[in-house]
Amino acid sequence: MALKSYFLSLNQLRRQMSASELISSTAKGGLELKITNKFPGERILVLSPHADDEALGCGGTLALYPKRTKVTVIYFSDGTRGTPSGKKIPALAEVRRREAAGAAKILKIDRQIFLNLPDGRFMADKKTATALADTIKKIAPDTVFLPTLFDPNRDHQEVCCFFAAASVSLRSRTQIVSYEIWNPLLPNRLVNITKVVKNKKRAVGAYRSQLDSRRFDQAILALNRYRGEISGAGSFAEAFFACDLKTWQTLFKKIAA
Question: What pTM was computed for the model?
Answer without folding.
Answer: 0.89
